[in-house]
Amino acid sequence: MGLMMPLLAFMFGSALVAAAAYALMPSRADAIGRRLDELTLDRQDAAEEKPRFRSVVGVLKRLGDRAPRSPREMGNLRLRLVRAGFRRDEALTMFFGIRVAFSLGLFAAFSMFFHARPNTVLMVALGGLGLGYLLPGMVLARIAKRRSHRIRLSLADMLDLLVVSVEAGLGLDQALQRVGQELAFAYPALSDELRLINLELRAGKPRSEALRNLADRTGVDDLSSLVTMLIQTDKFGTSVAQSLRVYSESLRTKRRQRAEEAAAKTGVKMVFPLVTCIFPAIWVITIGPAAIKMIQILPTVVAK
């Protein structure tokens, strides 16, 4: 059993290296495309046009193309990428390539110490392999959460501009387009989402479907409520400006309640840094001199 574990680890590492070499092998289409670039473009111009990390992107794409994919995971993962702001077609392939690269990199980093304790290091290397598989998903979820938070903070200003635009006489579609242009500098994430709505409307999608797509792309609860309110307003023929004004007031009330909730949690959250950072220093300063004095006096007292 002692010899079997290093042999299995060596076979597993060899299989991983062979798979990585096969993934990094340039395909025929890549070779043809590179040859056409050499024939049609000057090398210096091509070097200036292409970014320096193009080769790295190509490697990640090749790894992502050959990575195994679960059909059940594809829809949720694509939605998470869209909510994080990555809408291009190759975003999913790049994500799988990054996941495979992280897994292989961490496994190789932890496998460098197989000569010390093969059994222990094998388990650590396999743990690094699993960590490399999970880490890109965790980072992607964090990016999507931060983007949703930025969109949530920008909703109040968007509603104010939307109310002003609608009350000035613009239709809802024109108001969304105008607000998206005005928010391009302050809130680029929300501005991009509003521009996508305008593109979908120009392409012929119904307004209700375009608004629902906005709610699905962002994953923000407040924006989903706004979309539901706009769809119902359009369906029943009520005043859009009045509905937006009422919703704006309720949204500001909800923001104030969230701020009060965060302020109430501050006292509890401050306990942990106080206990771990400040209390030990205070303990050393207050009790340290007395402890030193006691250590100096205690031998004389015991001797007597």
Characterise this structure.
- There is one protein chain.
- The protein has 304 residues and is mainly α.
- The protein folds into two domains: 4-147, no CATH class; 149-264, Receptor-associated Protein (Up-down Bundle), CATH 1.20.81.
- It is 84% helix and 0% strand.
- The chain has helices at residues 4-24, 28-40, 43-49, 54-66, 71-83, 91-110, 118-167, 172-182, 188-202, 207-218, 221-236, 240-269, 271-303.
- It is flat.
- The model is unreliable at 39-49 (pLDDT under 50).
DSSP E strands, number: 0
- Write down the overall mean pLDDT: 78
Assign the structural class, choosing from mainly alpha, mainly beta, alpha/beta, alpha+beta, or little secondary structure.
mainly alpha
Rg over alpha carbons: 29 Å
Give the overall shape, derived from the CA principal axes: flat
How would you concisely characterize the structure shown here?
The chain is an all-alpha fold. Helices cover 84% and strands 0% of the residues. The protein has 2 domains: 4-147, no CATH class; 149-264, Receptor-associated Protein (Up-down Bundle).
Topology:
Layout: H1 4-24, H2 28-40, H3 43-49, H4 54-66, H5 71-83, H6 91-110, H7 118-167, H8 172-182, H9 188-202, H10 207-218, H11 221-236, H12 240-269, H13 271-303
Which characteristics define this entry?
single chain, 304 residues, mainly alpha, Receptor-associated Protein, 2 domains, 0% strand
